Automatic annotation (TrEMBL):
Coiled coil: none
Protein name: DNA circulation N-terminal domain-containing protein
Domain DNA circulation N-terminal: 39-124
InterPro entries (alphabetical): DNA_circ_N, Phage_Baseplate_Assmbl_Protein
Source taxon at top rank: Bacteria
Length: 475
């Protein structure tokens, strides 16, 4: 057998294909080099072979749904279809047996591998089937057939807990526990007569009066612009709507809100606080063993109305934190009735404070932190209140409230840690001379469009003259 002649026939065939391609390219107005120069040497897992050709299957994954008495089906698109490749190639040479064994070993390796296709480039693929063909009349020459599918990394569904829902549920449980502990204490004191009931009324009046005053806070009224579309300066930034791109992940209210509509909504919200306060006043004046549930519900109604009346969660936390520090001022005596009055005052104060803390936690779950440092700051602020209340409830033996506070603490930590983990940290930047915000944004972030964000974070006297040292997002 003329082995050299067989090899020469193979080389002649390859040369003929090249010449034919050159002739065809010339007729079509191109050059052979412009195409063949782009071809890549074929290989699988780094083992080279010569590609004779191939074919592929591409498209979409469609599921056809056919219905009774309906002439046309509904085709459901399930995404991009699996890309399949069939590649035909060969190895040739005096060491063809060694080349074949290397290619077989590459095919038998575990897992996905890298395929270099002459025209399709490098792809991560999984080998589904392969075979090699040996012919006596083609000595020093083995053919291969491969069937690949293009794959990707192993991805599992990402699970996350809805932190806001957990906080709201834990806050509701705290309100229930606080009401139970209040009822247990108040029922004992109520038996001492009208003076004790008067103490409950005066304590409630002082508390809801403070709540109404806080809602009318000048800064809270200024924050009415929070949900108004547009930019109104760095001092009008909020934790729910982006101002100067300060909160790029938040959504802007595009519902067509105007100053008039926001003013009307704020007026209605403050009226709701007044109505909730009136309900609490009535419940306090009619407090007895049969109306304790109405009283505790009215207390929670005041904090809920106050939370709804503050459009900015940061303001909600600020005002509610002030309300949580309310202390009744009524003086009592050391007599039996005086002691009962003091017990009622303390029970009311505990109930008010715990309902307020529950609303603060809900406000924190609605707050959009600007950085991981901001999330940690809010977390610490809320946890300080919860921890202090856990100490009080533990000392008083209010086990239900203690357990509810512990659950609320866990929910707040989980929520803010989860949301803060994806945010950049704050970093101190220092420069030799004062620079304008545009220059600093370009130097720090390579993005001059973030200049207004720097203004909002660093709060300079003027955007053209930043301090030489300031804090801003690290990335």
């Amino acid at each position: 057998m003329n082995i050299g002649g067989g090899a020469g026939a193979v080389l002649g065939t390859t040369s003929g294909i090249s010449n034919l391609a050159s002739s065809l390219a010339a007729r079509l107005g191109g050059s052979a080099g412009s195409y063949f120069d782009q071809l890549r040497p074929a290989s699988f897992r780094g083992v080279p072979f010569v590609s004779l050709g191939g074919e592929g299957a591409f498209g979409r994954r469609n599921e056809v749904h056919e219905y009774v008495l309906r002439d046309t089906p509904w085709v459901e698109d399930l995404g991009r279809g699996t890309r399949r490749f069939r590649v035909f190639g060969f190895v040739v040479g005096d060491d063809v047996i060694a080349q074949r064994d290397l290619l077989i070993a590459a095919c038998e390796k575990e897992g996905a591998g890298s395929l270099v296709h002459p025209t399709y480039g490098r792809r991560d693929v999984s080998l589904m089937d392969s075979r090699w063909i040996e012919r006596w009349e083609k000595g020093r020459y083995f053919e291969f057939e491969f069937e690949f599918i293009e794959g990707g990394p192993r991805v599992f569904p990402a699970t996350s807990v809805a932190g806001g829902s957990l906080v709201e549920s834990a806050a509701s449980d705290l309100n229930v526990a606080a009401a139970l502990n209040f009822a247990r204490t108040a029922l004992t004191a109520i038996a001492y007569g009208a003076a004790v009931l008067g103490s409950a009324v005066s304590t409630a009046v002082g508390w809801y009066t403070a709540a109404k005053n806080f809602v009318g806070d000048a800064r809270n009224l200024f924050r009415l612009l929070t949900n108004l579309p547009g930019d109104f300066g760095r001092f009008a930034g909020s934790a729910t709507v982006p101002t100067f791109s300060k909160f790029p992940s938040s959504s802007v209210d595009t519902s067509g809100a105007t100053v008039e509509s926001l003013t009307q909504a704020a007026t209605l919200a403050r009226a709701n606080v007044d109505a909730a306060s009136a309900t609490l006043d009535s419940a306090a004046r009619n407090l007895d063993a049969s109306t304790i549930d109405e009283f505790t519900t009215a207390v929670q109604g005041v904090t809920s109305a106050m939370l709804a009346a503050t459009p900015d969660p940061a303001d909600s936390m600020r005002l509610l934190t002030s309300l949580a520090g309310y202390e009744p001022s009524g003086a009592t005596t050391a007599s039996t009735i005086g002691t009962a009055m003091a017990t009622m005052q303390a029970a009311c104060s505990d109930l008010f404070r715990r309902a307020t803390i529950a609303s603060i936690a809900v406000a924190a779950s609605n707050y959009e932190p600007t950085s991981s440092d901001d999330a940690a700051r809010v977390r610490s602020q809320v946890l300080d209140l919860i921890d202090a209340e856990m100490t009080i409830s533990g000392d008083q033996g209010d086990d239900e409230t203690y357990d509810a506070l512990r659950s609320l603490r866990h929910a707040v930590v989980s929520d803010l840690n989860q949301r803060g983990a994806s945010l950049p940290a704050m970093r101190t930047f220092a420069f030799a001379t004062p620079l304008p915000s545009l220059t600093l944004a370009n130097r720090i972030y390579r993005d001059a469009a973030r200049a207004d964000e720097l203004v909002s974070q660093a709060d300079p006297v003027h955007p053209a003259f930043f301090p030489t040292s300031f804090k801003a997002l690290a990335t």
